[in-house]
Design goal:
CATH architecture of the domain at 118-193 in chain B: 2-Layer Sandwich
Largest sheet of chain B: 5 strands, mixed
Strand order of the largest sheet of chain B: 3-2-1-6-11
CATH architecture of the domain at 226-332 in chain A: 3-Layer(aba) Sandwich
Helix content of chain B: 40-55%
Number of strands of chain A: 14
Largest interface: A-B, 24 and 27 residues
CATH superfamily of the domain at 226-332 in chain A: Cell division protein FtsQ/DivIB
Oligomer: heterodimer
Radius of gyration of chain B: 23 Å
Order of helices and strands of chain A: HHHHHEEHEHEEEEEEHEEEHEEH
Distance between the termini of chain B: 23 Å
Strand order of the largest sheet of chain A: 8-7-6-9-10-11-12-13-14
Number of helices of chain B: 16
Largest sheet of chain A: 9 strands, mixed
Strand content of chain A: 15-25%
């Protein structure tokens, strides 16, 4: 081989002191040779150190090889991956179930944790807001639900509460919501009473659907509602309301309508005056009375009953006092 | 030959058991690398295979699910020289392949190129007993071949019936069921050095693997790189490996000759290493990157750096032209090819109807190899690559994988050999007792 000793031409010989000085400039933190690694020496002095090749044996050791093979065999793999965990779980489960003390302890811990979470402020309900109800109704709802705030929302059975509210006569429907910020919102639709019906000794308020929407203690509580009484009055409410409407001019004096013998209406005014209306066309008869009243002030006189049952011939009955006066005046004459 | 016959029969049984399980490993113990391939056999294709052989020697029936290659250690000239090292290398390869396949293999088929294979052509004839040829007749005719005295320490690795003749019909591949009187057979016997085979078997046993077959790599690489008509009309497959070069000659789809030349690519590397005074690793790298066998004037100008790590600046900064490197490689390659030529001459390759030569193996990838080989061996030279098989990674499809791929094909569809037929028991009587004792001794 002719090319074995091919040399690169060297331009200038650098003296050793010169070169050391130069290298000191290049590497100011130069250290004594004993303290620096061979690699660094090589770098500093421009030499190439033989690369240290860490020779690792790629071959697996005999044990490793056997374990790997065992791991790959399906029975052992299945045993380790499936059988062993199952066995452990079974063992633990059996131990747990057979040990009363442990189970009790576990249950306690679980219950405590549950209660702790339920008692957190995030789940506390502090207020109940009732919307769409009169103040009296709201009060009675609050009273009947008997909720002690604050209460955890986990302890509220909203369905039960809703049923309880809807069972009240005054309530048509109710919906309950839990709002963020600890608010229990109750949206109500109240039954609006239309009339009062005297049923025996009780005064029942009835709404447009014919449902009882409450019981009054005294008629004076709701003077604005018309009062009906008598057997079968409930079935003829519409007729009675029409009569009420016609009786507008004497509404000041009107006390109510009474169904007589489930056949016809009596209109009762104050001073116990009674207008007996006929079975058929009671409105015309009433209008007749009103005309009489406006022309002759018939109602302000001392008359107990105006009998309009025979529409062609109204019959008046005077009070005892009037009869007495008439009788004495006739005697005087 | 009887114990060997039994050995081979048990290996066949193990191969059948492996196929039943569906997984078998292929191990190619070479001088420069050890390859392990794990094959998974598809049972549905196996069913078809029982009816008849599938297309292209049944090679659709399996799939390669794991391949691992490792640098071979302790192997020289295709023979194990350091058992421990080789065992480690085999473990590395097998574990790598198992890891890739995620499956455990127990059965392994091995091929190797060393151990000085020698071919014998035997002939035997026998009278057909029942009028038509049966399996028993074939067994008898195979047993009637007079075995040459090839020495105590040699064992038969292949004993293939190459050709049958029945009365006047000189070439039958399968005479079973045919009617005739005189059945004769040509048997190709391949023997190798038994001690080397025993070393290999010990290595495999130490890796907890069971041997399901041993194949000469000359045969294996020919199966994968010769195409069907080449096998039919006559061709030679030359597998230039690391430590040895194996030669096999095929005619009528049967191997009729196999031999090996104990020179290979590693010798080229050591030539370069000593010639240029560089380490073997560097020499190997230069050989694979810049190697060649035909120099042109362009190569005089192509300078190649040799990185040394001796610390001597002059020594480490040398440069060589590519033609210098070719000048070292070429004589060695020529030597290999000339040796191969002599082997082929000895096998009377020139009398075959077609004289196709297929070069394969790692060293056949040197540029210009084809041209050089055609000058020495004959005009019909081509470079062979192994057949495509399912699931083989791209990296493992080069000519250096010819032997393992061929072995995989062989595992799927082995050639019928002597031990596939029931040979008539020559000495009845005391034998069964003796064999039972032997079995107890071997196994306890």
């Amino acid at each position: 081989m002719q090319s074995m000793n091919r040399k690169e031409p060297q331009l200038r010989r650098i003296s050793s002191i010169e070169s050391i000085n130069k290298r000191k400039q290049e590497a100011p933190n130069i250290a004594p040779l004993g303290e620096i690694s061979a690699e660094k020496i090589g770098r500093l002095f421009g030499q190439k150190t033989p690369e240290r090749v860490i020779k690792t044996d790629p071959a697996p050791s005999k044990i490793k090889y056997k374990i790997h093979r065992m791991w790959l065999s399906p029975i052992i793999k299945r045993t380790i991956c499936f059988g062993l965990p199952t066995l452990l779980m079974f063992m633990f489960g059996t131990y747990f179930l057979s040990n009363d003390n442990l189970r009790l302890k576990f249950n306690n811990v679980f219950e405590d944790a549950k209660l702790n979470i339920q008692a957190r402020p995030e789940f506390q309900i502090e207020l109940m807001k009732i919307e769409g109800a009169s103040e009296a109704l709201a009060m009675s709802i609050r009273k009947s639900l008997k909720l002690n705030f604050p209460v955890s929302s986990f302890k509220l059975d909203l369905l039960e509460l809703k049923n309880k509210i809807q069972d009240m006569q005054e309530v048509k429907s109710a919906s309950l919501f839990l709002r963020p910020g600890g608010l229990l919102e109750v949206d109500l639709i109240e039954r609006i009473p239309l009339i009062i019906w005297r049923n025996g000794s009780s005064l029942e308020m009835i709404d447009s659907e014919g449902e009882i929407s409450g019981i009054l203690a005294s008629r004076l509580d709701r003077l604005d509602l018309p009062l009906f009484a008598g057997d079968g009055a409930k079935e003829y409410i519409l007729e009675a309301l029409n009569i009420y409407k016609v009786a507008e001019p004497i509404s000041e004096r009107l006390r109510g309508l009474r169904r007589m013998g489930d056949r016809r209406w009596d209109m009762i005014l104050d001073r116990n005056q009674i207008i007996q209306l006929p079975e058929f066309e009671p409105i015309n008869a009433l209008k007749h009375v009103l005309v009489l009243n406006s022309s002759q002030n018939i109602l302000s006189r001392d008359i107990v009953t105006i009998d309009m049952r025979d529409t062609s011939r109204p019959v008046l009955r005077l009070s005892d006092a009037a009869n007495e006066i008439i009788r004495t005046s006739e005697l005087m004459e | 030959m009887n114990t060997l016959y039994e050995n081979q029969r048990t290996m066949r049984q193990k191969r059948r058991a492996a196929l039943q399980r569906g997984v078998v490993a292929i191990l190619d113990v070479g001088t420069s690398k050890i390859v392990c391939m794990i094959l998974q056999f598809d049972p549905s294709v196996q069913i078809n295979a029982s009816e008849g052989i599938g297309a292209i020697a049944n090679h659709g029936s399996f799939r390669v699910i794991g391949v691992a290659k490792t640098r071979s250690r302790g192997v020289k000239l295709g023979e194990i020289t350091q058992m421990e090292e080789t065992e480690r290398a085999i473990r590395t390869a097998v574990q790598g392949a198992q890891k890739m396949a995620n499956i455990r293999v127990d059965h392994v088929m091995v091929c190797f190129s060393g151990a000085q294979p020698k071919s014998y052509g035997l002939a035997g004839d026998v009278q057909v007993e029942t009028g038509s040829v049966t399996n028993a007749d074939i067994g008898r005719v195979l047993a009637s071949c007079d075995t040459p005295n090839f020495g105590e320490d040699r064992e038969t690795i292949h004993a293939m019936p190459v050709n049958f003749a029945l009365d006047q019909n000189p070439s039958l591949s399968d005479p079973r069921g045919q009617i005739g009187h005189l059945l004769s057979v040509d048997l190709h016997l391949l023997t190798i050095d038994a001690r080397i085979l025993r070393n290999l078997i010990t290595c495999i046993k130490r890796c907890d693997l069971e041997l399901a077959g041993v194949v000469s790599s000359a045969y294996a690489s020919a199966i994968s790189s010769l195409v069907e008509d080449e096998q039919e009309l006559g061709a030679a497959c030359i597998d230039i490996g690391g430590g040895s070069t194996s030669v096999s000659v095929f005619l009528r789809k049967q191997m009729i000759f196999a031999d090996s030349v104990r020179i290979g690519g590693d010798h080229v590397t050591s030539d370069l290493s000593s010639g240029l005074q560089i380490p073997r690793n560097t020499a190997e790298r230069i050989k694979t990157i810049h190697g060649g066998v035909i120099a042109t004037s362009m190569d005089d100008r192509e300078m190649i750096d040799v990185d040394g790590q001796t610390g001597d600046w002059d020594h480490d900064r040398r440069k060589f032209t590519r033609s210098e490197i070719i000048g070292i490689i070429r004589p060695r390659i020529e030597e290999i090819l000339e040796e191969v030529y002599h082997k082929l001459q000895a096998a009377r390759f020139d009398t075959l109807p077609s004289q196709r030569i297929v070069l394969t193996g790692g060293a056949s990838q040197i540029p210009g190899m084809e041209g050089l080989a055609s000058r020495i061996l004959g005009q019909q030279v081509r470079l062979g690559r192994p057949l495509r098989v399912h699931g083989l990674p791209q990296a493992a499809t080069g000519p250096d994988y010819a032997a393992p791929v061929g072995l995989a094909l062989y595992a799927a569809h082995p050639q019928d050999e002597c031990w596939d037929f029931d040979l008539p028991e020559r000495r009845m009587g005391a034998m069964p007792m003796k064999r039972a004792m032997q079995w107890v001794k071997n196994n306890w």
